[in-house]
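for the writeup, i need someone to sanity check this before i put it in the appendix. the sequnce is what the collaborator sent (i think, or maybe the updated version? ugh). structure was predicted straight from it, no edits. if anything looks off just tell me and ill rerun, i have time this weekend
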Amino acid sequence: MLSHDVFFTLKDSSDEAIQRLVSACHRHLRDHEGVEWFSVGGLEPELDREVNDRAFHVALHVTFTDRATHDAYQVAPEHEQFIAENHENWAQVRVFDSIVDGGAGRA
């Protein structure tokens, strides 16, 4: 499986702007072929340990069946529309892609 983790730092980091981006992720990014896991949400303000990277406002986590489904997602019209509708409020976008195993409960 391929884990695609994206951390968005916003120009407008108001609660409303964060919720707009979270809603846009749900609307455009969750229902793609090959998505095994989808989650998105805002920074947890109470987790403020020295080791926490807090340089983001919204975190998106999508796990795909394989590299091919990830690659198809990257050029899908819904993904392109998400970028077009939201990129103007992005100060920084950090993407972390990794190959992962099935996790707990899987052989």
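Residues 2-45+55-97 form a domain with the Alpha-Beta Plaits fold (CATH 3.30.70.100). Residues 28 and 78 are 5 Å apart (CA to CA).
thx in advance!!
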